């Protein structure tokens, strides 16, 4: 059990208590913070508060992070493509069609189920019982490199690197159309879609800053093969940003209504490279997940169409 105490800063005036705690310690998910509040583990000036409490300057906020409990989800012997492993981190190459962590109605067959079996209890517990070891994620249909944290110290350190945009994350994608510029930066805030809460969108009013740098690797007639480097890490960032430019990802049926000609199973997006300063050694490490077979086959098909 971990007890944390801090004093509300001026910029927290009038904000909801869960939002303030998230701002102070963003390694916890908002949903997990809300559960802590609901369970009576958050005190303001020594009094338990509800989730809708609005913080005042100099409020003394105390909250208790309960000890991690064994997830009520099964560990499963699912093969992992391991790029690197030591006693602190595990770098895996996630396959297509695999959900990262369990959710209601989907408690088996996830990356977490596989990692629980492989690590045998050696996982960080900061993000609660359904997300042991998970400090960031990629979509079900996106493949590629992910960091899994084996202890809370490593989890906090990696989360801090993510918060300061200090982790290298380069993706490969194929988009519709031919980009006019071979290099560019998209700096456009991303938030919930105003009319569809299941989607994200460029949202100038309520979005958070999102920055994607892109480089054209190959022009392929009606399509373009690109590399994207994330400066920030918003939900569906690359998919939303490229669609906002008029170049949605091939295979993405959420952010474009264009006809999908290659019978693809989701967006053509691969988290190819991940790099970070190792929390224990202080050394910069970088890992590359090779392109999956379907991606390479698609590139060959597109090159064939060109020739």
Topology at a glance:
Layout: E1 2-7, H1 17-24, H2 30-38, E2 42-44, E3 47-48, E4 60-65, E5 82-85, E6 89-94, H3 111-119, E7 143-149, H4 152-163, E8 168-176, E9 183-187, E10 190-192, E11 200-202, E12 211-220, E13 223-230, H5 237-244, E14 269-277, E15 284-288, H6 293-306
Parallel strand pairs: 7-14
Antiparallel strand pairs: 1-4, 2-3, 2-4, 5-6, 6-7, 8-13, 8-14, 9-12, 10-11, 12-13, 14-15
Helix pairs in contact: 1-2
Element string (H = helix, E = strand): EHHEEEEEHEHEEEEEEHEEH
Kindly name the structural category: alpha+beta
By DSSP (H or I, 4+ residues per run), the number of helices equals 6
Portion in helices: 10-25%
- What is the quaternary state of this protein? single chain
Give short descriptive properties of this protein:
single chain, 307 residues, alpha+beta, nine-stranded mixed sheet, four-stranded antiparallel sheet, 6 helices, 15 strands
Short characterization:
The chain has six helices and 15 strands. The chain has 307 residues and is of the alpha+beta class. The strands form three sheets. Strands 5, 6, 7, 8, 9, 12, 13, 14 and 15 form a nine-stranded mixed sheet that branches. The protein has a four-stranded antiparallel sheet with strand order 1-4-2-3. It has a two-stranded antiparallel sheet with strand order 10-11.
């Amino acid at each position: 059990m971990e007890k944390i105490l801090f004093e509300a800063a001026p910029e927290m005036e009038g904000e909801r208590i869960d939002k303030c705690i998230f701002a102070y310690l963003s390694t916890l998910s908002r949903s997990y913070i809300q559960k802590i509040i609901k369970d009576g583990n958050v005190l303001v000036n020594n009094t338990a508060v509800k989730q809708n409490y609005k913080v005042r300057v100099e409020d003394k906020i105390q909250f208790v992070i309960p000890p991690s409990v064994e997830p009520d989800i099964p560990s499963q012997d699912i093969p992992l493509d391991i790029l690197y492993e030591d006693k602190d981190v595990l770098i895996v190459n996630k396959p297509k069609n695999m959900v990262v962590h369990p959710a209601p109605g989907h408690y088996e067959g996830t990356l977490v189920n596989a990692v629980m079996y492989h690590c045998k209890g050696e996982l960080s517990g900061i993000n609660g019982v359904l997300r042991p070891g998970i400090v960031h994620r990629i979509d079900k249909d996106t493949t590629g490199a992910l960091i899994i944290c084996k202890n809370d110290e490593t989890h906090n350190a990696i989360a801090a690197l993510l918060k300061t945009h200090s982790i290298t994350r380069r993706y490969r994608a194929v988009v519709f159309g031919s980009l006019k510029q071979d290099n560019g930066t998209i700096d456009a805030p991303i938030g919930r879609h105003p009319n569809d809460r299941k989607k994200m969108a460029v949202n100038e009013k309520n979005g958070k800053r999102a920055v994607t740098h892109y480089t054209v690797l190959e022009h392929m007639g009606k399509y373009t093969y690109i590399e994207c480097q994330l400066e920030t890490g918003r939900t569906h960032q690359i998919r939303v940003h490229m669609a906002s430019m008029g170049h949605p990802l091939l295979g993405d049926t959420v952010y474009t209504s264009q006809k999908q000609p290659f019978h693809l199973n989701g967006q053509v997006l691969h988290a190819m490279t991940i790099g970070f300063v190792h929390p224990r050694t202080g050394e910069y490490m970088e890992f590359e997940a090779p392109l999956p077979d379907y991606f390479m086959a698609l590139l060959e098909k597109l090159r064939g169409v060109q020739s």
